[in-house]
Write a structure and sequence with these properties.
The complex is a heterohexamer of chains A (205), B (201), C (270), D (191), E (325) and F (439). Chain C has helices at 4-27, 34-42, 56-64, 77-92, 123-128, 144-148, 174-178, 203-209, 219-223, 248-251; strands at residues 98-102, 116-117, 154-156, 162-164, 184-188, 193-195, 228-231, 234-237, 259-261. With 270 residues, chain C is an alpha+beta fold. In chain D, helix 3 packs antiparallel against helix 8 and helix 4 crosses helix 7. Chain D has one domain (3-186). With 191 residues, chain D is mainly alpha-helical. Chain D contains 9 helices and no strands. The chains are: A mainly alpha (205), B alpha+beta (201), C alpha+beta (270), D mainly alpha (191), E mainly alpha (325), F alpha/beta (439). Chains E and F meet through strand 1 and helix 1 of E and helix 6, strand 15, strand 16, helix 12 and helix 13 of F. Bound molecules: flavin mononucleotide (FMN) (3 copies), riboflavin (RBF), iron/sulfur cluster (4 copies) and FE2/S2 (inorganic) cluster (FES). One iron/sulfur cluster is lined by residues 364-370, 380-381, 412-415, 417, 419 of chain F. Riboflavin (RBF) is lined by residues 23-24, 27, 79, 82-83, 86, 112, 118-119, 121, 124-126, 210-211, 256-257, 259-263 of chain E.
């Protein structure tokens, strides 16, 4: 095991070094699917964060009890329970958002970020650290969704969070709200992320 | 404890615990969610039949649901038809109100659609598309007017306006309405509209 | 009742699932290479499939079996690759850290060009049409080794010879395999004196082809006959351990610098 | 919508990867080699078909009758996970060559949202049993088509001079975007 | 005798005279008749679109070459000019120039340079640019104006295929006359209007052996057969194949775009498969799809198959046992 | 008459007119000859002489116990100066016997003729061929004796005499066919006898119709025929030639005897006749010196071991600016880096010209021309790409080892990619990988 990081570093790594979307390529499906509007992106991010944080807590607190052979199965049940809670909550109190996100909220259950974090981190670390890690990862995920959805909403509808930002001179790029635009924007963003990474690395050497 | 026993116990226990949690959550939210759905239908009904006071389901099958609606005085206002079909991309779900004699469409509203934003999605646009549906004569199947005209007055009684650049979506909406109208008339002839279950919804 | 059904349903599902799993576990237990476990441990466990294998575990197995590249995990990046390299490496030669060493000092100033080379600019390609320099044993200078190194540990120096960064080198041996002229090998880091030539040409030919070639004059052999011999017109260090440090200055008298201490630049310390 | 259109639509128009964004992880992860991609596609198709059957039964025989629709997520995922596990065991026992070709991809499928997405979408769309199965097979084949095409392209791009930062997932996503453009030519074809 | 000044390289030491840039310029020359025809039909606006397109393609290409530190010389290899010309030829004449620029940038950036530039792209760059515009600005991309030679006074104007798509039934005179299609006296994208101008250029390319004859032949015959079958069974609902061949972007697509070497198969058998695929898909989309025209989508769709086609249509090596079919 | 040919291939400009009309002249041997012990496919010969020894013309100076090897003879009489490494036309220096010519050409007593060569038994012909150090003179330098002893169960029915000379510029085979017609036919008959074949086919391209008519006349009385072939490169490559003449396909990785054929170059046939009829070993061969870089273009009969410099000087030397020196034809020949390298048994020509600016290389544009010109049915661009990226196993799967390095693909490639060089890298990597695996 690598030397323990400081709490701050543990949190910050999720933002960039181990950003789930840009660096680890995890949770791509929701990232692509729900980012056609900022509000959806944020809602999705929050829902995922909720599940991630709570399941990390639970997993790290009962990690000693779980035999490794049923590890995954147990995690899945735990995660699924929290997802159900999130899904029901949205459906009950924010029906429009729930509708817009469609099946992607239930799909948090198979989001690789969550299971991956349980496997890689919570099952091996203390409750506190797992919490920090989950917080970091969630923040990273939310930021990624926010970035992607802002670009898509701005170019696709000329608005941000539903407020028309660009004037009438702007002709909205419908493609940005459609699947093709999602793929292409994320592809380009990934390229930019790697470019920044290699530049900063080159400087630090 | 032997390993497999432990596996079984742990997983079962986790299942039990989460089951109990979820049952609580489920019960707590069940009503609210059901209510949300009801509310949506009711809003739609009052949108297509504005003078509705009460309404109840009189017919339901896979692709069609029909509500009868009455005003304050319990006079029939008409029927609200909830129908769906494929659009340009995916399913379009809509509701329209029709007078009791099945001669005029009162109004149309789109409940769900995934058409192209800025294009097919204009079928939800009140000013450019839905407005032209109000008061259409539907004794005959409706037809599409293309290219579009400026005001509803220029349309023939059973014509509706197409959306420029999204003829297909417009056509699909038309198809859904025409098909359901046909079925509506059929159902009425068979006398299935007089509903037994009068539980107001 | 309202509460019981869901609880029971889930409990039952859990029960069924765990019975199935424990059954599977017992029936299908497989003995494993301890390396797999060790590699698995350092992998990020994202199970993303980015490596082209079905999850981290499968990748670890493939690496342990030598089927997958140690650098195959895109999520882990260089950090993880280094760790895997260590795990895989500890098997081979435990204690002594080895590094790659280039046995040629035929740099652009020393070695004579044969003609105007217009072929493909890789060492391998140049080698199969006879090379670009008169010396057919020495470095071709097109850096196949540089491109082969997964750890960015080898670079083309200013004088057209590759330079190994001993700190970064993990002794993976990729560059050794890449060099068509076989002039790189792995040596203990501590060994700092070596022969920097592989030319078997006679003295005259060697001298004509490269200023830094071994001309088999025998000065080094006379200085330290216990360890150094002449074979096929080339000085060879037979047993490094027998070199008495005190004799090194005498060995360094080599008129062409074909044998001697590794310089700071060559060790990438400058 | 008859079954044939449902089937074709699931492959071309409402492709799981290119339209619903499901199963992106294996789509990006296992699309570097054609052979692997094809095996993955087949494994997904297989599991999808099974899932379609199993989830329909659970949904219509247990969850809906007892009013337990809120247990959908948990029970679907459990069923999928155990199904995959079972299939894996079964294949490993019965046919080692098939296991090599297909089975090793199964664990990856458990956490693949395409499978779960299938179960949820079929439930959401209220398909009857036959439709659910057709939808499952079609979606699986649609996934296979997309991933095999992608792998062919990526094998070719492996030999191309793609800008360094775009190599790997970046270019794969852009290709997916253009593929989505190309596939959108089929929209409107469902009558 | 001088020493060490001889050239060292591998055989063969002879090379054919044809080169990539000569091929590219041959294509540019072959496009001249069609470009001229469109400028005749759509006047200044057409010329403006051509200039904007080619210029923005070249600029985008130059920026990428610069950033990637590549040889600026290859800016003039002709391929970016072709991309610009062909993109312009597939745009509606009414398109505003800012959209033209967006399309050109996307064509070169997304369609070509992200893959590594000339030779590496998977999709036809001009069509990537067009597809991007079509999806991003669907209304602008389906708004047509009549050619200056045609007197019409309706506010909206339809292309021959658009007209066909929404025709309830085919009757005498409801179709655009073939003669107009042939000479180009119809609405539509800049370059697709005049069949004769396109054919002249295409003949030049075939004669110079720049393009593989199998591709246009395959596409045209597949489309003719596909539409022919439906026409024979119900001529009141479907129109005859010749109309389909002359209308829309078929000719420009079959001769100039599907033949793009980079994005088409390299084996002869592969070329047949690719061409037949494109032809039938065009028929399918035109007759049953949501769009009046399917050339662009069909070519892009078949582009995605090219790597697989190349892989599975390897020619038989001399002495290799014939594989059982 | 219908001209026979094979599918695909190409037709580069021929430039044969430079030397077509030049009679074969005997070149006086130089003062020093440099005779490499490695002039053939297989193991190099071991030296039989050492420094200071006197040798005679035609004396055996190298031999080996290996089957895949060939003997080497002195091409002059004189004294051995050195046995050491010397530049070799194939690239790396090789062990070479350097002999000072005494100018007398004293023949070795072993060079004795046979009265009635046609009555010899096949084994005898073969052993004479082996003793004479004959190797294929069409380029590959495969030991001819080995070729004439096919393994058991592989009966030979046809001997093909390869008179295509499809490489541009070269005319040495053409001149041999014109001037030594009878010798070649006799040699072919000996080859047929040695291989116990039924018939001979002499394949000649239709740009050499005069030779074709000549052979047609003189072949009278021999079991065989003369066939006219289309002028197309590489008509002379044996697998394609066999296909063109007999429509038989040599299996992948196989040899002509797998389809009952032996292919021999016209020069080889002449050498066989000389060896058997007059006991002359292979110490001289016909070489075309041609190209715009030479002051004069000639066809010469040159002693093996003569440095190129000597022959070039006989042709008046190099022109100013000549920078491309190729042994063999322009399609398959090897670039030479100095003129000290000697003529060897496989040297069919020396071509010299001034290479102007090197063409700009483009990325492959998938035009498919290489595919539609490769006579072997390969996909050169893919082989190139796989080799370039080190995917050698894939390259092997796609048949890189079947490539005969004819160069059609690279000749035709509009992107000017060094396809053949890359393919050779791939072939080399694969064979060395295989060698490693074996050991
Ligand atoms: C990306 C894209 C999305 C489209 N979406 C729709 C749509 O949702 N509904 C629709 O009717 N037409 C849509 N179209 C356009 C149709 O395919 C077709 O061109 C149009 O219906 C023709 O109608 P018009 O004759 O009114 O121009 C879309 C076109 C594109 C390029
Ligand atoms: C605007 C422009 C137009 C050109 N037109 C042609 C042309 O029509 N034909 C041509 O062969 N080369 C043309 N060239 C030259 C080519 O770019 C290129 O230099 C030449 O074809 C290289 O061929 P070569 O090296 O085989 O001589 C043109 C160049 C420019 C800049
Ligand atoms: C591309 C290529 C071209 C060849 N061209 C000729 C040729 O023109 N004449 C010839 O005699 N051999 C040519 N060869 C060599 C023949 O394939 C074959 O090796 C030779 O004819 C065998 O005869 P030998 O053993 O007597 O040399 C060529 C080989 C290759 C690969
Ligand atoms: C016959 C031929 C057709 C071409 N067609 C196109 C085309 O349709 N679109 C395009 O962008 N470039 C075209 N090009 C140019 C060039 O091949 C293209 O930009 C490459 O795809 C860039 O790598 C064509 C070139 C040739 C020789
Ligand atoms: S390739 Fe391996 S051995 Fe060579 S320098 Fe790099 S790390 Fe060291
Ligand atoms: S691979 Fe060998 S020849 Fe090439 S640069 Fe490296 S050391 Fe020199
Ligand atoms: S691949 Fe080989 S055999 Fe084919 S054309 Fe090229 S050099 Fe000749
Ligand atoms: S001939 Fe050249 S450009 Fe054409 S496909 Fe072959 S390698 Fe590519
Ligand atoms: S998030 Fe969808 S497969 Fe990973």
């Amino acid at each position: 095991m690598p030397p323990k990081k400081s709490i701050g570093a543990e949190y910050l790594k999720g933002l960039w070094n181990e950003n789930p979307v840009f660096r680890q390529l995890l949770g791509m499906c929701p990232t692509l699917a729900v980012t056609n509007a900022v509000i959806n992106g944020i809602a999705m991010g929050l829902a995922t964060a909720f599940v991630l944080i709570l399941s990390s807590l639970v997993v790290s607190s009962i990690k000693k009890l779980i035999p490794s052979q049923v590890r995954i199965a147990t995690y899945i049940v735990i995660i699924a329970s929290f997802v159900t809670i999130a899904d029901r909550f949205l459906a009950a109190f924010f029906p429009p958002i729930s509708k817009a996100l469609g099946p992607y909220v239930p799909l948090i259950v198979v989001n690789c970020i969550i299971l991956g974090r349980q496997e890689a981190f919570s099952s091996r670390n203390s409750i506190g650290r797992s919490l920090i890690d989950a917080l970091g990862m969630s923040t990273g995920f939310i930021l990624a969704l926010l970035l992607l959805s802002s670009i898509r909403e701005l170019l696709g509808s000329g608005s941000f969070l539903g407020h028309q930002l660009l004037g009438s001179w702007f002709k909205p790029w419908t493609i940005m709200i459609l699947p093709a635009g999602a793929f292409i924007t994320l592809g380009v963003l990934l390229g930019i992320a790697l470019l920044i990474e290699s530049k900063t690395k080159a400087r630090s050497v | 404890m032997n390993l497999s026993a432990r596996m079984i116990v742990v997983l079962t226990a986790v299942g039990l615990i989460s089951g109990s949690f979820l049952s609580v959550v489920g019960l707590l939210t069940k009503e609210r969610i059901a209510m949300n759905q009801q509310l949506e239908i009711q809003n739609a009904i009052s949108e297509v039949l504005p003078s509705t006071k009460t309404s109840h389901k009189v017919f339901e099958d896979e692709s069609l649901t029909i509500y009868e609606s009455r005003d304050e005085n319990d006079n029939p206002v008409g029927f609200a038809v909830y129908a769906s079909g494929t659009g340009f991309q995916d399913i379009i779900t809509l509701m329209y109100g029709i007078d009791p004699s099945f001669s005029k469409i009162k109004a149309l509203t789109i409940l769900e659609q995934k058409e192209t934003p800025g294009l097919g999605a204009k079928i939800t646009d009140k000013t450019s598309f839905l407005r032209y549906w109000e008061g259409r004569n539907c004794e005959q199947p409706l037809s599409l007017r293309k290219p579009a005209v400026e005001s509803p007055g220029n349309l023939a009684p059973s014509e509706v306006n197409a959306i420029t650049g999204a003829t297909i979506s417009s056509e699909k909406v038309l198809d859904i309405v025409n098909l359901s109208l046909e079925r509506l008339k059929e159902i009425k002839q068979k006398g299935q509209l007089s509903s037994e279950e009068k539980n107001a919804t | 009742m309202q509460f019981l059904i869901p609880i029971l349903t889930l409990g039952l599902l859990g029960l069924l699932f765990s019975i199935g799993l424990s059954f599977a576990y017992q029936k299908l237990k497989v003995e494993e290479d301890p390396k797999v476990e060790a590699i698995s441990e350092v992998l990020p466990q994202a199970n993303c499939g980015g490596c082209g294998y079905s999850g981290c575990r499968a990748f670890a197995e493939a690496v342990a079996k030598g089927k997958a590249e140690i650098t195959g995990c895109p999520v882990g990046g260089e950090d993880v690759s280094q760790k895997i390299a260590r795990i895989m490496g500890t098997e081979a030669g435990k204690a002594i850290k080895k590094v790659a060493r280039v046995h040629c000092r035929g740099n652009t100033k020393a070695a004579r060009e044969k003609g105007i080379y217009l072929g493909i600019t890789t060492c391998h390609a140049a080698h199969i049409i006879g090379g670009n320099k008169e010396c057919v044993y020495g470095c071709l200078g097109f850096g196949d080794c540089v491109r082969a190194c997964p750890f960015d540990a080898i670079h083309m120096g200013e004088e057209g010879l590759p330079v190994v960064d001993a700190d970064k080198c993990t002794a993976c041996g990729k560059c050794v395999d890449a060099c068509p002229r076989d002039i790189i090998d792995l040596q203990p880091v501590s060994q700092n004196i070596m022969v920097f030539c592989r030319s078997l040409d006679s003295a005259a030919a060697a001298k004509k082809a490269c200023k830094n070639a071994c001309i088999s004059c025998g000065i080094c052999v006379r200085a330290c006959p216990e360890a150094i011999v002449l074979e096929n017109n080339l000085a060879v260090i037979k047993d490094y351990k027998k070199i008495d440090p005190e004799k090194i200055p005498a060995i360094e008298k080599c008129p062409t610098d074909a044998i001697g201490r590794i310089t700071k630049e060559e060790n990438h310390e400058g | 919508m008859d079954l044939l259109t449902l089937f074709v639509a699931a492959i071309l128009v409402n492709n799981f990867v290119l339209y619903y964004f499901l199963g992106i992880c294996p789509f990006l992860g296992v699309s570097k080699k054609i052979d692997a991609a094809f095996s993955m596609g087949m494994a997904v198709t297989f599991v999808m078909t099974l899932t379609a059957v199993a989830s329909w039964m659970i949904n219509h025989w247990i969850l809906i009758p007892f009013g337990l629709d809120y247990l959908q997520i948990v029970s679907f995922i459990l069923v999928i996970a155990s199904l995959v596990q079972l299939v894996e065991m079964f294949i490993r026992k019965m046919s080692p060559p098939l296991y090599q070709a297909l089975g090793i991809y199964l664990p990856l499928i458990t956490t693949n949202c395409a499978i779960m997405g299938l179960a949820l979408l079929a439930a959401l769309k209220n398909y009857d049993f036959i439709k659910t199965v057709v939808f499952g097979v079609g979606s699986g084949l649609g996934f296979t088509l997309a991933i095999v095409l992608m792998s062919g392209i990526r094998e070719q791009l492996d030999l191309a001079d793609v800008p360094e930062p775009l190599k790997g997932a970046g270019i794969a996503l852009i290709v997916a975007g253009i593929m989505a453009l190309a596939f959108s030519g089929f929209s409107g074809m469902i009558k | 005798m001088k020493e060490n000044t001889f050239i060292l390289k591998s055989s063969p030491h002879f090379r054919d005279k044809d080169s990539v840039s000569k091929i590219m310029y041959a294509v540019i020359i072959s496009l001249i008749p069609a470009v001229a025809a469109s400028i005749y039909f759509f006047r200044l606006k057409a010329a403006l679109i051509y200039i904007t397109c080619v210029a923005s393609c070249l600029i985008t290409e130059a920026v990428f070459l610069k950033v990637r530190k590549k040889d600026m010389h290859s800016l003039w290899d002709g391929s970016a000019i072709i991309t610009g010309l062909l993109l312009a030829m597939t745009l509606p004449p009414s398109l505003s120039l800012d959209l033209v620029i967006i399309g050109s940038v996307m064509a070169i950036a997304l369609g070509k340079q992200v893959f590594g530039g000339l030779g590496y792209n998977v999709f036809n760059p001009a069509l990537v640019g067009r597809a991007f515009l079509q999806i991003a600005f669907p209304v602008a991309m389906t708004t047509w104006i009549p050619p200056s030679t045609l007197q019409v006074n309706t506010a909206t104007f339809a292309t021959p295929l658009g007209n066909l798509k929404f025709l309830a039934s085919i009757t005498e005179g409801s179709l655009t006359p073939l003669k107009d299609l042939f000479w180009g006296n119809v609405g539509g994208c800049l370059g697709e209007t005049s069949a004769i101008a396109l054919l002249a250029g295409a003949l030049f390319l075939l004669f110079r052996k720049v393009i593989d004859w199998r591709i246009p032949v395959g596409i045209i015959s597949a489309l003719a057969v596909f539409t022919g079958i439906f026409w024979i069974t119900s001529p009141d609902k479907y129109t005859h194949p010749l109309f389909h061949v002359l209308a829309g972007g078929l000719l420009i697509g079959a001769f100039f775009m599907a033949t793009d070497m980079v994005t088409s198969p390299i084996t002869p058998l592969g070329a047949w498969i690719y061409a037949l695929g494109i032809g039938s898909l065009i028929g399918l989309i035109r007759l049953f799809g949501g769009f009046p025209e399917g050339v662009m989508f069909s070519i892009l769709f078949m582009n995605t198959f090219v790597p697989l086609i190349n892989r599975y249509t390897r020619p038989r090596i001399l002495g290799e046992r014939r594989r059982r079919a | 008459m219908r001209k026979k040919t094979f599918p695909r291939g190409t037709h580069p400009p021929e430039y044969k007119h430079y030397t077509e009309g030049q009679r074969l002249e005997k070149l006086e041997p130089p003062e020093k000859v440099f005779i490499p012990l490695n002039q053939h496919f297989g193991k190099p010969a071991d030296p039989l002489v050492s420094k200071g020894e006197e040798v005679l013309l035609g004396q055996k100076i190298g031999d080996s116990d290996e089957l895949f090897s060939a003997t080497v003879h002195s091409s002059v009489s004189g004294k051995v100066l050195f046995v050491k490494e010397h530049p070799h036309p194939l690239g790396s220096p090789a062990l070479t016997v350097i002999i000072a010519n005494d100018g007398k050409d004293t023949p070795h007593p072993d060079m004795k003729g046979t009265k009635d060569p046609f009555s010899l038994k096949p084994e005898d012909i073969r052993s004479k061929v082996r003793d004479a150090g004959i190797v294929g003179m069409g380029g590959a330098a495969f030991p001819t004796a080995v070729k004439l002893s096919p393994p058991k169960g592989k009966a030979i029915d046809t001997v093909i005499i390869n008179g295509c000379e499809c490489e541009p510029l070269l005319t040495s085979d053409y001149r041999l066919m014109l001037e030594y017609t009878k010798d070649i036919i006799n040699g072919a008959e000996l080859v047929r006898k040695a291989a116990e074949a039924k018939r001979i086919i002499i394949g000649i391209e239709d740009n050499k119709r005069d030779v074709f008519e000549l052979f047609k006349q003189k072949m009278n009385g021999f079991p065989g025929e003369t066939a006219l072939l289309k002028t197309k490169y590489p008509q002379g490559a044996e697998k394609n030639l066999i296909y063109a003449l007999l429509k038989r396909e040599v299996p992948r990785g196989g040899l002509p005897f797998d389809v009952g054929v032996v292919v021999q170059n016209v020069g080889t046939a002449k050498a066989v006749w000389d060896a058997v009829s007059s006991g002359t070993p292979l110490y001289e061969r016909a070489v075309t010196l041609s190209g715009p870089g030479l002051k004069e273009n000639k066809n010469l009969l040159i002693r093996i071991g003569t440095p190129f410099k000597h022959a070039v000087e006989y042709c008046g030397g190099l022109k100013e600016g000549a920078n491309m020196l190729v042994m063999g034809g322009p399609m398959m020949g090897l670039a030479q880096w100095n003129l000290d390298t000697p003529v060897i048994k496989g040297t069919s020509g020396l071509i010299v010209w001034e290479e102007e600016a090197f063409p700009e290389e483009f990325p492959c544009i998938s035009c498919g021309r290489c595919v539609s010109h490769c006579p072997m049915g390969l996909v050169p661009t893919r082989l190139m790409n796989y080799s370039r990226h080190g995917y050698y196993q894939e390259a092997e799967k796609w048949g890189v080892l079947d490539c005969v390095e004819c160069g059609c693909c690279q000749y035709i490639c509009p992107a000017k990619i060094p396809l053949v060089h890359w393919i050779r890298v791939g072939k080399n990597a694969i064979t060395s990988m295989k060698r490693k695996k074996k050991s």
